[in-house]
Amino acid sequence: MQDTSRRRPALPKNYQLIYEIVERSGIGRHLTSSDIYAKALKRRPGIGFSTVYRGLERLRDLGMVSELHVPGTDAAAYEPAGPRHAHFRCRKCGEIEDVPYAIPPRTLRTLALEHGFAIDEERVTFEGRCASCRPS
C-alpha cells in the first residue's frame, strides 16, 4: 500500500521543536514568536529567540505553518497550516478568531486576469466587535 500522506522535510532539532509547539497549539490558536519562544525555552533551555524567529520563517516558507499579520496587532501570529479561512479581530478586546471563509477561486482568477496579477495567496481579516464586546 502506498503512503499518500504529505511528507515533511527533515528539520533541524530546534525547528522540529518549534513546529511541534505550533502544531500542538492547534488551528485557531494564534501564537506570537514570543509565545513560541517561551514554550521552547521551557523544553530546551538555551534556545535563542533568533533561532525561533528563523525557524518560523523557514516553516512558513515550507508551508508547514501559517503566518498571520492582523491590522491593530503588534506582532505576527502563527498557527498550523490548515484549510483556507479568514480571521476576525475584535477592536475592543483584541481577540482574534478564525472564520470559515475564503474568497472563491473563480474570484481570485478573475482579479488576477483583470489586473495582470499572479495571486499566490490570500489573507482576509474582518474587524469589529465580538459577541462579548458588542452592545446588546
What is the gist of this entry?
This protein has about 140 residues and is of the alpha+beta class.
Structure description:
This protein has helices at 13-25, 33-43, 49-61, 105-115, and strands spanning 31-32, 65-68, 77-80, 86-90, 96-99, 125-128. By secondary structure, it is α+β, with helices and mostly antiparallel strands. The protein has two domains: 12-82, Winged helix-like DNA-binding domain superfamily/Winged helix DNA-binding domain (Arc Repressor Mutant, subunit A, Orthogonal Bundle), CATH 1.10.10.10; 83-136, Ferric-uptake regulator, C-terminal dimerisarion domain (Dna Ligase, domain 1, 2-Layer Sandwich). The strands form two sheets. The protein has a three-stranded antiparallel sheet with strand order 1-3-2. A three-stranded mixed sheet has the order 5-4-6, with no helix packed on it. A hairpin with an 8-residue loop joins strand 2 (65-68) and strand 3 (77-80). The chain starts with 12 loop residues before the first helix and ends in an 8-residue tail after the last strand. The relative contact order is 0.14. Residues 1-5 have low confidence and may be disordered.
Query: Whole-Å distance between the termini?
Result: 57 Å
Q: Count of helices?
A: 4
As a whole number of angstroms, the C-alpha radius of gyration is: 17 Å
- Strand content bin: 15-25%
Mean pLDDT, all residues? 89
Q: How many structural domains?
A: 2
Shape-level CATH architecture of the largest domain: Orthogonal Bundle
Give me the CATH fold name of the largest domain. Arc Repressor Mutant, subunit A
Shape: globular
Strand order, biggest sheet? 1-3-2
